[in-house]
Design a protein that fits this description.
The complex is a heterodimer of chains A (about 350) and B (about 525).
Chain A (H helix, E strand, L loop, with lengths): L3 E3 L2 E2 L2 H14 L3 E7 L2 H14 L2 E2 L4 H14 L1 E4 L1 H7 L2 E5 L23 E6 L10 E4 L2 H15 L8 H16 L2 E7 L5 H14 L4 E7 L5 H12 L5 E2 L6 E2 L6 H6 L5 E6 L12 E5 L11 E4 L9 E5 L4 E5 L9 H11 L3
Parallel strand pairs in A: 3-4, 3-13, 6-7, 6-9, 7-8, 9-10, 13-14, 14-15
Antiparallel strand pairs in A: 1-2, 1-15, 4-11, 11-12, 16-17
Helix pairs in contact in A: 1-10, 2-8, 2-10, 3-7, 5-6, 5-7
Chain B lengths: L1 E11 L4 E10 L2 E3 L8 E4 L4 E4 L1 E3 L7 H9 L15 H10 L2 E9 L4 H9 L5 E7 L4 H8 L4 H15 L3 E5 L3 H6 L18 H15 L6 E3 L9 H10 L5 E3 L7 E2 L7 E2 L1 H10 L3 E4 L6 E7 L2 H7 L9 E4 L5 E8 L4 H16 L6 E2 L13 H9 L1 H9 L3 H5 L12 H16 L15 E4 L5 H6 L3 E4 L2 E5 L2 E2 L7 E4 L6 H14 L15 E4 L4
Parallel strand pairs in B: 1-4, 1-5, 6-7, 7-8, 8-9, 9-10, 10-11, 11-14, 14-18, 23-24
Antiparallel strand pairs in B: 1-2, 2-3, 5-19, 12-13, 15-17, 16-17, 19-20, 20-21, 21-22
Classes of the chains: A alpha/beta (about 350), B alpha/beta (about 525).
């Protein structure tokens, strides 16, 4: 499983690390993208980026930042999937990909305990609904307006909608107001920022009368875990740059894809230890990827790294529990990303 | 290597030492003068030599602190945000002030792993967490069922072990659970709906458990009704509820409020100081307010929900997790604000009116009263009545009128500072080899150079040693070793694990151990429990 290559030719790991260090050491502005890695990998990437004045971005930054931007402009009230599972008497799933582990389970803690959870889906009707869920079909283009109307209805303000739609919405508003602990979930990849902000406002309004919490479902690739690690290491979630001698964060400027398209970056390190995806970037590329990655074109350096929590012990964000957890892995031939990043750092020219 | 810190005024109240002399260090420990020449010599003539400072209550890690970081990117446009610095800066800033051990006092079990990773990223200083217990459904179910003390102790022991924690924190017990069930207020004798368990009963159960396990640190309690006018009554009732048993009251300033004066808000600090003095088993830390921008981070979710309207800037996060959860509300304390001025004065009154500096601890409840970077100014205020008078002159007169601060003459001595921030915290936490300078003690040492500007002296220690290694010289960090994590390892009956797993599988669909901090991720130094 242990494999490394330089320009498509198999090479010893040490040689690949040395070549990666040479490329990064010679770059004026390198981006560290992908970043699908564990807590140790994130810490090692920060150390490397700090040293080379690089930029760190995650391949799911767009969805991650869509949630975070709502949180850090308007604030929010949220909970964990485990709390939702144990307690919620009502679950409102908004948009595609909004179902969560255990939504179909019977709540066992108050106030939800003793009755089946009411599950209502609002959004495109393409996915198979959880068992017993009611679906209110709404196209993506219609959703934002509908959420605004729902918030107004819950607040008792008049809204103008076709009669049939209004009946559905009024019924939904009544269900929400009657819930004792409601959870509204969404996946930021499927909603726009305004819709998320509208949901958070709705949750605020509902908490004036009863209890509600949001459940933002984070994107894959350990995006939430990496954002946490970067939080305590840099103060910022993703799109963090070290190029000007201090830590900086800018969601537009430090977008790895944009920087590469605009030729602001002259080298890249791509790290996907989880799914082994590879970008189609054409600049000098160092790819640290999970076993089985497929390259359309050979990167300057390719190093196979272990999958966190499968091939090696790791701390990653568990999307079913909503917190960082430790996962043990069996010792595999492929090294952990953190170890490879550490070797590259150590091999950099002084 | 044998080293001597020569000719300083060595202040070690744990051994009633306050005299000019030498301090010898070898292999990371204080040693008796060995009668041979040192390999290294540090001149401390004219300087003050004390053990490294110990902060018993400072929010430096965990889901709440990290959420505060992520919530407020605009606060770090021109450098780090003092109220929520990154891990690296936490270690460096504390070390520069001569602090070498810091306790993060509010980590819920489900996020202990993250907190430990964050602590591991903080250099130089030693760290520990207190584990928040008291609002978990499993515990409430045990207490409702009239569980015997031993079972609750087994539960607490198992949770402390899984999280690698140093002690038990209890935060507005029952309130977070009641908030999930729609309550908006919760006092000492209110019952959690559905569970029928009172705050008072939870406190007592955790006192019993802590004593049964022999945990050195007493239950570290964040009382109910934080921040509300008239809440001194709550604090007094809680002190009475302890019935002479040991109990630590966190950030007492936030409970030092009466209802006198035209605005129905006044300092009740003198009454609380009297009660502390009269109850020798009670300890407290102050939670001093200092003026400026900060962010309040608290696992008192009900209180933080109520405080959202006062957010500055206007945004906040409530995160409802297992047990307590988290509330993050940014806030700016203003010198010209009547309420903030009363809070500032009430904190200082507590510092100055509690006579025994071994039972009152130096905190700002970082960052809730102020960032820990304000400690130098606070030390200066305690040591100088003139400086206090200058500050008081800037406050609204009606605020000053509802406090007794202007009349208080006391100025802290060096020995009292050393007791409050070194000797007493080590005793309170059960850290036998810290907080003092006798042979055998860990060579965590701070050297300060007296100067007219007291705050400058505390902000930039002349020399700081961690385990005998020089880490700060003239206020600048010169080395950044990794600090340790301190934890207890109490004995408990493992039969509790089956019950915990039954509960967790039923409620959350996962084994309870999923939230554990695995051994080896963060190697901890074990702090012994009483037999």
């Amino acid at each position: 499983m242990n494999s490394a290559a330089i320009a498509g030719r198999a090479a010893p790991l040490e040689a690949a690390v040395a070549e990666a260090a040479r490329i990064l050491g010679a770059s004026r502005c390198a981006v560290l993208g992908g970043m699908a890695t564990d807590a140790a990998g994130a810490a090692a990437a920060v150390a490397l980026a700090r040293r080379i004045g690089g930029v760190i971005d995650h391949r799911h930054s767009v969805a991650l930042l869509r949630d975070l931007d709502v949180m850090r402009t308007a604030g929010w009230m949220v909970t964990t999937p485990t709390q939702a599972r144990a307690r919620a008497d009502l679950a409102l799933l908004v948009g595609a990909g909004a179902t969560w582990p255990g939504v179909e389970a019977e709540p066992v803690l108050p106030p939800g305990a003793g009755a089946a959870r009411r599950v209502i889906r609002l959004g495109p009707g393409r996915e198979a609904p959880p068992p017993g869920a009611n679906t209110i079909t709404a196209g993506a283009e219609e959703l934002l307006g509908l959420l605004g109307a729902l918030r107004a209805t819950v607040a008792g303000r008049p809204v103008r909608l076709p009669a049939a739609r209004l009946r559905v919405l009024t019924g939904l508003a009544e269900s929400l107001r009657a819930a004792r602990y409601g959870v509204i979930s969404w996946s930021a990849g499927a909603l726009d920022g305004l819709a998320i902000e509208m949901l958070c406002g709705l949750i605020d309004d509902l908490n004036a009368h009863t209890r509600f919490a949001g459940l933002p479902l984070p994107p894959p690739g350990n995006a939430a875990g990496v954002a946490q690690s970067l939080g305590w290491l840099t103060g910022f979630p993703v799109r963090v740059g070290f190029g000007r001698g201090k830590m900086e964060h800018d969601t537009w400027w430090l977008d790895a894809t944009r920087m590469i398209a605009a030729r602001e970056a002259d080298a890249a390190l791509w790290l996907d230890a989880i799914d082994g995806t590879v970008p189609d970037w054409t600049l000098p590329l160092i790819a640290l990827v999970a076993p089985g990655a497929h390259f359309a074109r050979s990167p300057a350096v390719a190093i196979t790294v272990g999958r966190p929590g499968i091939d090696h012990d790791a701390v990653i964000f568990d999307r079913a529990l909503g917190v960082l957890v430790a996962r043990s892995g069996s010792a595999a031939a492929a090294p952990a990303a953190a170890a490879v990043l550490g070797s590259i750092l150590a091999a950099l020219p002084c | 290597m044998l080293m001597v810190i020569a000719g300083g005024r060595v202040i070690d109240p744990a051994h009633e030492r306050d005299a000019v002399g030498d301090l010898w260090i070898e292999d990371g420990r204080i040693v008796a003068p060995p009668g041979r020449a040192p390999d290294a010599r540090h001149d401390a003539a004219g300087a003050i030599v004390m053990a490294g400072g110990i902060d018993i209550h400072s929010h430096i890690a965990g889901w709440n602190v990290n959420t505060a970081r992520l919530l407020l990117p605009e606060q770090r446009r021109d450098g780090d945000f003092a109220a929520a610095p990154v891990a690296e800066h936490i270690g460096q800033l504390y070390a520069q002030m001569g602090f070498t051990t810091v306790v993060e006092p509010a980590i819920s079990p489900s996020v202990a792993l993250q907190a430990q990773l964050e602590l591991a990223a903080i250099p130089i200083i030693d760290k520990a967490i207190l584990l928040v217990l008291g609002n978990e459904d499993f515990l409430l179910d045990l207490l409702r069922g009239g569980a015997r003390g031993a079972v609750v102790a087994d539960y607490a022991g198992r949770m402390l072990t899984g999280a690698q924690a140093l002690g038990v924190k209890v935060i507005n017990p029952g309130a977070a659970a009641a908030f999930k069930l729609g309550a908006r207020r919760f006092g000492l004798d209110d019952l959690v709906p559905e569970w029928d368990v009172s705050s008072r009963a939870i406190i007592r159960a955790m006192q019993d458990a802590t004593d049964a396990l022999g945990i050195p640190h007493p239950v570290h309690l964040h009382c109910s009704n934080l921040g509300l006018p008239g809440n001194a009554e709550t604090a007094l009732a809680t002190i009475a509820a302890a019935e002479g048993r040991r109990l630590h009251l966190a950030h007492l300033q936030f409970y030092a409020y009466g209802t006198e004066g035209a605005r129905g808000f006044s300092s009740a600090a003198p009454r609380l100081a009297e009660a502390i003095a009269a109850n020798p088993a009670i300890t407290a830390d102050v939670g001093q307010v200092m003026f400026g921008q900060t962010v309040t981070v608290s696992s008192d979710v009900m209180r933080q929900f109520g405080a959202r309207g006062q957010a500055h800037p206007r945004k906040s996060v409530i995160w409802e997790g297992e047990g307590n959860g988290v509330g993050i509300v940014p806030y700016r304390y203003r010198r010209r604000n009547f309420f903030n001025a009363v809070q500032w004065a009430a904190g200082l009154e507590l510092f100055l009116l509690v006579p025994d500096s071994s039972r009152l601890f130096f905190t700002t409840d970082h960052p809730n009263g102020a960032p820990f970077t304000t400690y130098p100014e606070l030390f200066a205020l305690l040591m100088s009545r003139d400086l206090r008078a200058q500050w008081i002159a800037e406050l609204p007169e009606d605020a000053v009128a509802v406090t007794t601060l202007p009349a208080i003459a006391r100025e802290y001595s060096w020995a009292e500072i050393a007791t409050m921030t070194r000797a007493a915290p080590a005793r309170l936490l059960g850290l036998a080899d810290r907080g003092h300078l006798a042979p055998g003690a860990r060579a965590d040492v701070a050297v300060y150079r007296p100067q007219a500007d007291l705050a400058a002296m505390f902000r930039e220690a002349a020399l700081v040693f961690k385990d005998g290694a020089l880490v700060v010289r003239d206020g600048a960090v010169v080395a950044r070793p990794s600090g340790r994590v301190l934890a207890v390892s109490p004995g408990f009956d493992r039969a509790i694990e089956r019950r915990l797993d039954d509960f967790a599988n039923r409620a959350w669909g996962v084994a309870h151990s999923a939230f554990d901090v695995p051994a080896g991720i963060v190697p901890a130094e074990v702090v012994p429990c009483a037999a």
